[in-house]
Design a protein that fits this description.
Largest sheet: 5 strands, parallel
Number of helices: 15
Number of domains: 2
Bound molecules: zinc ion
Structural class: alpha/beta
Oligomer: single chain
Distance between the termini: 78 Å
CATH topology of the largest domain: TIM Barrel
CATH class of the largest domain: Alpha Beta
CATH architecture of the largest domain: Alpha-Beta Barrel
CATH superfamily of the largest domain: Metal-dependent hydrolases
Number of strands: 8
Shape: globular
Helix content: 40-55%
Strand order of the largest sheet: 4-5-6-7-8
Order of helices and strands: HHEHEHEHHEHHEHHEHEHHEHH
């Protein structure tokens, strides 16, 4: 009797687990596949009219294309200044080793969560062996706006930044896409990028000559419905929180307009519009941005996927705006990831992956290299960064 009861309980629990697993497309598909294989059938059934439904997240076509030439650089042609780095869990020794492997001379950590002098000192302490090779760009203390009324909050935010700038001779700050898309006022409306209320913060940047590295918005596909027509469907189904579609958010163009107003209003500041100013998919707009605002620079972090699908126009663009583009890979200097950036910039290789195999893809396309001339490469790898950071050498 007891055995019978135990069997019943086990069946109950197993069916519960099974039901939970069945709920997810991916596990459901896998379970069906396992079942067919156990039953002695291959799931790879080639019968006519047999439709196989594969969740899009599992679709990873292997290209049958055979390249005529492959040049994968072992090292970048020139030393590198990483202008769009993040460290997160990277240890000090790991970072030093990674920088050696990728010939990264200076690493800029866009440390968004470093918002007070105390935080800053902790981070500095953690990487003290790196000395001048690590440059930290702290973030703004948005908590101040949660704790206080709007105007006082901004003033305290500016004070926190000034405290760091005064004591640490920092070179810049980092702003994230949450400015414009997530931070809301007490009345529930979003803070606008061009709101003059932020002048106390910009004035601190001006006073201490701080570069404003600003990530605004995201690729325009993130502002469209997550459906069968969205070219980043796979990416968005993995990270639905990256979607800014719907009435709670401004449109892509609206947020670009706000940023434009800010660039115009604060011509006294230097901005780096991160992720290619979010115009890697549309070089005409990227060009307008740089033409209209001589105080604006752009970086290539996480946008070679876009740039590498129109390599000829991109090459012309890089040559034309060779003094305004900075190198960055968005993260620690991982060799395999950096190598793809070198391949993209230096070679004319065709149709290759924009990220290493172990990283999640953005969409089902591949990229082409832009084989830049050495003089341009040198500027993008480190010379532009040196000039902007006001350093003589790395
Ligand atoms: Zn980043």
């Amino acid at each position: 009797m007891k055995l019978f009861k135990n069997i019943l309980i086990s069946i109950f629990f197993l069916s519960y687990i099974f039901l939970v697993l069945w709920f997810f497309d991916i596990t459901r598909f896998k379970l069906i596949q396992i079942f067919w294989n156990l039953a002695g059938f291959s799931y790879d059934i080639k019968q006519q009219n047999y439709k196989i439904y594969i969740p899009i997240q599992l679709y990873r076509p292997e290209s049958m294309f055979v390249p005529e030439k492959i040049h994968i650089p072992v090292k970048p042609k020139f030393p590198v200044i990483e202008f769009h780095g993040h460290l997160f869990k990277t240890s000090e020794d790991e970072l030093i080793q990674m920088m050696e492997n990728t010939n990264t001379k200076i690493f800029i950590d866009l440390a968004l969560r470093t918002t007070t002098l105390e935080n800053y000192e902790q981070l500095e302490q953690k990487y003290k062996k790196l000395k001048d090779r690590l440059i930290i760009f702290p973030g703004l203390n948005w908590n101040r706006l949660k704790e206080n009324n709007n105007q006082t909050g901004i003033e305290l935010m500016a004070k926190d930044l000034e405290e760091i700038a005064k004591n640490k001779s920092i070179k810049g700050i980092k702003l994230w896409k949450d400015f414009g898309l997530m931070h809301r006022k007490k009345d529930g409306s979003l803070w606008r990028l061009d709101d003059p209320a932020f002048d106390p913060v910009w004035d601190v940047c001006k006073k201490y000559h701080l570069i404003v590295a600003i990530h605004t918005s995201d690729p325009p596909a993130f502002f469209r419905p997550i459906d069968e027509r969205n070219e980043r469907l796979i990416e968005l189904s993995r990270r639905p929180e990256w979607s800014f579609y719907g009435k709670n958010y401004p449109s892509f163009d609206e947020i670009m307009k706000q940023r434009e107003n800010l660039f115009k209003r604060r011509r006294d500041l230097i901005f780096v519009a991160l992720h290619f100013g979010e115009f890697a998919h549309d070089l005409k707009r990227a060009s307008e941005l740089l033409e209209k605002h001589s105080n604006v620079y752009i970086d290539i972090a996480q946008r070679i996927d876009e740039l590498g699908r129109h390599p000829r126009s991109t090459r012309d663009f890089f040559i034309k705006y060779q003094d305004r583009i900075l190198f960055g890979i968005d993260g620690p200097p991982e060799y395999k990831k950096a190598q793809i950036y070198w391949r993209f910039l230096e070679t004319d290789d065709e149709y290759f992956d924009y990220l290493p195999e172990d990283k999640s893809i953005k969409g089902l396309w591949k990229i082409y290299g832009i084989s830049l001339p050495d003089t341009v490469l040198e500027k993008i790898y480190y010379k532009n960064a040196l000039r902007l950071l006001n350093l003589q050498k790395y």
